Recover the amino acids of this structure.
């Protein structure tokens, strides 16, 4: 039972990060019908920009409290990723909205490689240690179950961001414009909605969430490097497909479910395979789920809600 509860906790931590990134995929798909495969690189940029900011500030002001360093890192990383996300939409995708579907897909892959290469030039090939700005001192609420303040912080922040996004989409004027644009951006334009502005805002919001997810991911794994966005980006895409691409609650559910399945798989795979595989093979579960969903339920767990997608 202790192992079971520990795996639930671990799965919620990783699943909440996947869900944040998956929201960016599903928002863009909901409005444009486009899979933005460059979205995972925004996770990487957010982590590395935050690391650079924290390193510079801690060197110049060694007495600064870690909380201020974290807030400063996030305060720089989020706007930078928002600008990058806007430029991706404005330069890379806007002219391809009416192009065949293969054109924006290839462009997204190209943008992903471009961002990775630029990050490699700026920050180098080496792995960077991300400082522990939130305490990782283990607490033991019950026998056999260990939790750290960083894990609690990750889950709480992710849930707060997901709740805030749902309020934005369902209750705000921008959210109504996003849903209208998702329905039909040409008709929305005839009704007075600035479709280009709404689409740009969607990329900006998704990029901001990716930056925050990058900081949380780097904080939990204490590492950052130029290629770190590929795996969580691919898993987040799997989560979006699992929940129902274009469906915001589906992306959240998909991320949490994927995190739990991956965690349970890592915890029990050695027993299930009689020692043939170990926890280092946990990534196979994400791709097994992706294949199973595409074969047996392509619309995902919650399905695609056309009228409400954003």
């Amino acid at each position: 039972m202790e192992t079971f509860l520990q795996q639930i906790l671990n799965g919620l931590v990783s699943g909440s990060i996947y869900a944040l990134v998956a929201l960016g995929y599903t928002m863009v798909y909901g409005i444009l019908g486009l899979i933005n495969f460059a979205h995972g690189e925004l996770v990487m940029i957010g982590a590395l920009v935050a690391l650079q900011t924290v390193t510079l500030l801690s060197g110049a002001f060694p007495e600064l409290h870690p909380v201020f360093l974290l807030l400063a890192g996030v305060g720089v990383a989020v706007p930078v990723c928002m600008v990058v996300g806007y430029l991706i939409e404005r330069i890379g995708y806007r002219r391809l909205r009416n192009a065949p579907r293969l054109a924006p897909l290839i462009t997204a892959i190209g943008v992903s490689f471009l961002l990775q290469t630029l990050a490699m030039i700026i920050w180098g090939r080496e792995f960077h240690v991300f400082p522990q700005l939130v305490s990782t001192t283990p607490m033991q609420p019950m026998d056999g179950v260990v939790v750290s303040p960083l894990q609690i912080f990750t889950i709480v922040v992710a849930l707060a961001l997901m709740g805030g996004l749902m309020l934005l989409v369902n209750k705000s004027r921008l959210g109504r414009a996003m849903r209208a644009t998702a329905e039909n951006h040409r008709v929305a334009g005839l009704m007075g909605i600035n479709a280009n502005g709404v689409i740009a805002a969607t990329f900006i919001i998704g990029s901001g969430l990716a930056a925050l997810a990058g900081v949380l991911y780097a904080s939990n794994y204490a590492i950052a490097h130029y290629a770190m966005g590929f795996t969580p980006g691919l898993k987040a895409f799997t989560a979006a497909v699992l929940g129902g691409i274009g469906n915001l609650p589906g992306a959240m559910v998909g991320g949490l479910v994927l995190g739990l399945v991956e965690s349970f798989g890592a915890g029990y795979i050695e027993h299930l395979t009689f020692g043939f595989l170990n926890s280092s093979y946990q990534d196979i579960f994400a791709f097994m789920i992706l294949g199973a969903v595409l074969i047996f339920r392509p619309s995902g767990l919650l399905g695609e809600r056309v009228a409400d997608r954003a």
In short: The CA atoms of residues 181 and 187 lie 8 Å apart. The domain at 2-129+141-309 is CATH 1.10.3470 (ABC transporter involved in vitamin B12 uptake, BtuC). Confidence is low (pLDDT under 50) at residues 306-310. The chain is about 70% helix and 5% strand.
